[in-house]
Write a structure and sequence with these properties.
- The chain is mainly α.
- It has three domains: about 80 residues, NADH-ubiquinone/plastoquinone oxidoreductase chain 6, subunit NuoJ (Four Helix Bundle (Hemerythrin (Met), subunit A), Up-down Bundle); about 30 residues; about 40 residues.
- The protein has nine helices and no strands.
- α1 runs antiparallel to α2.
């Protein structure tokens, strides 16, 4: 077993454990941190597979931006985890059935050759100067350009929804009304008071 295979098994194991802990931990903040750990190890696996652009993109975009947004939203919403834990055991069979159904569908779509059921020869070496970033860009902005734009719109809607959730009204919290602040006139805030001068006593 080579050193790269050892690293692959280490990163893959940590990613699977992090994903399992993400869906089983009761604390939403801890779940988001476990998701960060999973993304980071998946990015390392991609780098081992010579997809450096995808690995760095996963770290910069998802770990560095999207997950930080998730953490801010989770911490600002003050989610009560007690009612969420009540239906975990009751809904566990349905969740396992849906997960199994998704695995079967992925296997049917991708095909058996990508799941190790058929012997696949190693890919041919790429010529000198080959850029996997350029190849991804050519496919992404030609064949999958509409899917890429739809994903961008969905992410924009998610950002707007996250901001809307954090701007809800809470009791006992003071808010600024920018419109009322801009409509204030000088006469509303400043009052001129005329007073007689004091006489100096001897």
């Amino acid at each position: 077993m080579s050193f790269e295979q050892i690293l692959f098994y280490i990163f893959a194991t940590v990613a699977v454990v992090g994903a399992l802990r993400m869906i089983t931990t009761p604390n939403p903040v801890h779940a988001a941190l476990y998701l960060v750990l999973t993304f980071f190890n998946v990015a390392l696996v991609w780098i081992l597979l010579e997809a450096e652009f995808l690995g760095l993109l996963l770290i910069l975009v998802y770990v560095g931006a999207v997950m930080i947004l998730f953490l801010f939203v989770v911490m600002m919403l003050d989610i009560n985890t007690a009612p969420m834990r009540e239906g975990f055991v009751r809904n566990l069979p349905v969740g396992l059935f849906v997960a199994l159904l998704m695995i079967v569908e992925i296997a049917l779509v991708v095909g058996p050759r990508f799941f190790g059921l058929e012997v696949v020869s190693s890919p041919a070496p790429r010529p000198e100067g080959y850029s996997n970033t350029g190849a991804i860009g050519e496919v992404l902005y030609t064949e999958y350009v509409y899917a890429f734009e739809i994903a961008a719109v969905i992410l924009l809607a998610a950002i707007v929804a996250a901001i809307g959730l954090t701007l809800r009204r809470r009791k006992g919290v003071k808010y600024q009304d920018i419109g009322r602040q801009l409509d204030v006139r000088r006469e509303d805030r400043v009052r001129m008071v005329r007073m007689d001068a004091e006489k100096q006593q001897d």
